[in-house]
Amino acid sequence: MRNFALIHLNGVRREIRGREALMMLAEWLRKEAGLNGTKIVCAEGDCGACTVLRASSRPGTAPTASLHFEAMNSCIATVAQMDGTHIVTVEGMQCGDRLSPAQEAMRTCHASQCGYCTPGFVMAMSAMLERHDRADARTAANYLTGNLCRCTGYTPIVEAALTVRATETHSVARRYSDPQAVAESLAATKQSMFVEHDGVKLFAPISLQEAVTFMAMHPEARVLGAATDLGVQVNKGKPMPAALLSLHLIPELYESKVTRRGVSFGARVTLADVRRVSEDVAPEFARFLNLFASPQIKNVATLVGNIANASPIGDTLPFLLIAGGEVHVASRPSAKGSVRKRAIPMTELYVGYKKLSLDPGEIITHVTFDRTPAKDVMRLCKVSQRKDLDISAVSGAFSLTLGPRRRGVGAASAAPQVVGARIAFGGVAAMPVRMHEVELALQGELTAERIEAAAHLIASSIKPIADVRGSASYRRVTAANLFRRYGNEVLRG
Ligand SMILES: Cc1cc2nc3c(=O)[nH]c(=O)nc-3n(C[C@H](O)[C@H](O)[C@H](O)COP(=O)(O)OP(=O)(O)OC[C@H]3O[C@@H](n4cnc5c(N)ncnc54)[C@H](O)[C@@H]3O)c2cc1C
Ligand code: FES
Ligand code: FES
């Protein structure tokens, strides 16, 4: 059992133990590693000032020749969970006395004033250059969505992103894919890790068997996906839970499997990977995930974390409720017993505000959902105060299965026939809801009157909570209007 997290930081091997391993990465970089280039502004994952690049050698795989570096926010990630990864900070970008292309572009475009956001923009832009030799406006916007600047204004920053070009010499993957470092990381991740300080213990096992045994002994332990939730809470002053279980060393939890029926994502699969895999299986879900947080969050946060977080406004939940979603859980009811596995349909998972129907000690191992049938018209929507990087006030998932159109006597055109309907909402009750009554009311010929009746039924049957994101009546009207817009789009064909 290791008692340290192994990180390669700007190419240098670091073993990090005890108190330091339980710090947030950004704080550790600044206070312990002496790398002050990484800034902390919001400490909530919202501004991107703390962006670093991270590549991980996935446990249980063969060494790869080239690492795959992606941007992440370092303010809400524990050092312990960076175990086995390669981190590059802004200090690692320069080549000798030459600035990196992103640094040079920010300088020549006068894209910095106070400079506080600048390292974050440089790192986000550098992540973009790892995938694109040059960027068009859309690509640049996608990569910079997670970064805020308070004084320069975005025009020169976007200009820098549009003019910058990748160079072979500055490729982060090329400079930092040291075969020895990759082999060392993979070797370390074959051993479980246990770090402890001041009454807080974090265990990272290498097998599901060990994980459920730990949970049987510590049913109160907090399971960690990417810990984006924990990071925000700790930075807001909440104490670290006394027992933490990190799943980052369990190889099988990184698996994505596409089958004829649908897809399965392990508990460690990131939302960025879920989006990529879903492009073929559930294209509307993949499109919708573009609106989920920023690249820095999606590159680490997991789909299972979004499900287990159980927020009534969790963005993926209405989709999973209408797509035959099921969570698969494992536990070990007694420390000597065998591993028990079961599946829970998404429609039975939520039992109250932030309450799941999981038994104490149960871990979600993976989630499955069905392929979107070609004949279904699915639409996922989210209403928030701004388009990007915002939490929804209301979200909706609608899917109608249409049969052949039937022309009625004297009808000007044939109306679509609804042979199946699935409707779910987030943000309209203490938990995400599937609306079976509305679904029944939609069966048959789809007419303007039927859509209107369904919208009224939605408004009258939901019981939204009022909070800072919207009053109860705003949510009621918005939910009904989202459905109206969708229904009328389907009607128009
Ligand atoms: C800046 C920012 C933007 C965000 N934007 C959005 C957004 O647009 N839409 C949205 O819906 N959410 C958003 N979130 C919320 C959050 O990032 C997501 O819920 C994310 O999917 C959580 O994933 P994670 O891996 O970090 O989960 P974690 O934080 O690790 O876990 C979340 C919860 O799930 C539990 N858990 C995790 N894995 C398991 C498991 N395998 N078994 C049992 N329990 C488990 C944890 O104990 C914890 O209670 C945002 C968060 C931040 C910080
Ligand atoms: S400091 Fe704002 S995202 Fe980390
Ligand atoms: S240059 Fe000051 S915040 Fe961006």
Q: What's the gist of this structure?
A:
With 493 residues, this protein is an alpha+beta fold. The protein has 18 helices and 21 strands. The strands form five sheets. It has a five-stranded mixed β-sheet with strand order 2-1-5-3-4.
Notes on the structure:
The protein has 493 residues and is α+β, with helices and mostly antiparallel strands. It has 3 domains: 4-92 and 174-246, Ubiquitin-like (UB roll); 101-169, DNA polymerase, domain 1 (Orthogonal Bundle); 255-492, 2-Layer Sandwich (Uridine Diphospho-n-acetylenolpyruvylglucosamine Reductase, domain 3). It is 32% helix and 23% strand. The chain contains 18 helices and 21 strands. The strands form 5 sheets. A 5-stranded mixed β-sheet has the order 2-1-5-3-4. Helix 11 (271-281) runs antiparallel to helix 12 (283-289). It is globular, with a radius of gyration of 24 Å. The chain starts with a strand and ends with a helix. The mean pLDDT is 94. It binds flavin-adenine dinucleotide (FAD) and FE2/S2 (inorganic) cluster (2 copies). Flavin-adenine dinucleotide (FAD) is lined by residues 44-46, 76, 222-230, 232, 247, 267, 292-293, 297, 301-302, 304-306, 308-309, 314-315, 363-364, 391.
The CATH top-level class label of the largest domain: Alpha Beta
Q: Name the strands of the widest sheet in spatial order.
A: 2-1-5-3-4
- End-to-end Cα distance, whole Å, is 60 Å
Structural class: alpha+beta
The second-level CATH architecture of the largest domain is 2-Layer Sandwich
Helix content estimate: 25-40%
Query: Globular, elongated, flat, extended or rod-shaped: what is the shape?
Result: globular
CATH topology of the largest domain: Uridine Diphospho-n-acetylenolpyruvylglucosamine Reductase, domain 3
Unreliable residue runs: none
Strand content: 15-25%
Instruction: Supply Rg.
Output: 24 Å
List the total number of helices. Answer: 18
How confident is the prediction overall: mean pLDDT?
A: 94
How would you sum up the major sheet?
A: 5 strands, mixed
Tell me the count of domains: 3
Bound molecules: flavin-adenine dinucleotide, FE2/S2 (inorganic) cluster
Number of β-strand runs: 21
